[in-house]
Specification:
Elements (H helix, E strand, L loop, with lengths): L7 E6 L5 H10 L3 E3 L2 E7 L5 E7 L4 E6 L1 H8 L6 E2 L1 E4 L2 E4 L1 E2 L1 H11 L7 E3 L10 E5 L8 E6 L6 E7 L3 E4 L8 E3 L2
Antiparallel strand pairs: 1-5, 1-6, 1-9, 2-5, 3-4, 7-8, 10-14, 11-12, 11-15, 12-13, 13-14
């Protein structure tokens, strides 16, 4: 795929927890972006606690645009960097297919407290079965049915290769279809 001129989802890093600053910057430029958020209990200065949405994966932001646009934006911004992976002896920017990104956004926006964010190395997808969920808030989501460390039962895990994995809440096997 020609990523120079086509609009794709880039996985980007915003070091030092500046993902929300990067999101605000990109929103002002009318560039679609996504930061996975979760609810957390935050300590206030006065000693009380409150629930607040915070980035689920620090320093990570997904940007939906062309490579040319990202290159021009990065020239004046020091807090937006490509997440890369080695390919043919070079480091290339990680891109996420539109369908996979739409599913990831739907899953992470489900506001389900039993969603677990994992590092890709914490999941062995070779031991899993590729599945699709039918019904419920995760309808249409594709992932791998695997055992997640620290959980009693197997879970459907959605993987964005090289970046993150999301383990969904327990889903009845009645709603899971094995796919090739």
């Amino acid at each position: 795929m020609d990523t120079e001129n086509s609009i794709v989802w880039f996985a980007m890093s915003a070091p030092y927890r500046r993902e929300l600053i990067a999101k605000e910057f990109l929103n002002k430029k009318n560039i679609e972006c996504f930061v996975p958020m979760k609810e957390a209990l935050i300590d206030r200065r006065n000693g009380s606690k409150c629930r607040q949405k915070v980035p689920a994966i620090h320093n990570l932001i997904f940007v939906h645009t062309t490579k040319e646009t990202i290159k021009s934006l990065k020239q004046g911004v020091n807090f937006l960097q490509y997440c890369t992976r080695p390919k043919d002896g070079k480091n290339v920017p990680i891109t996420v297919p539109d369908k996979q990104m739409q599913q990831f956004i739907a899953v992470t926006n489900a506001n389900n407290e039993s969603i677990t964010y994992l590092r890709p190395e914490e999941i062995d997808i070779k031991k899993g079965t590729k599945v699709r969920v039918h019904g419920g808030v995760f309808d249409g989501t594709e992932g791998y049915f695997v055992k997640v460390q620290g959980k009693r039962s197997r879970r459907v895990v959605m993987l964005i290769e090289g970046i993150t994995a999301v383990a969904l809440t327990e889903i009845s096997t009645d709603f899971i279809e094995v796919i090739d």
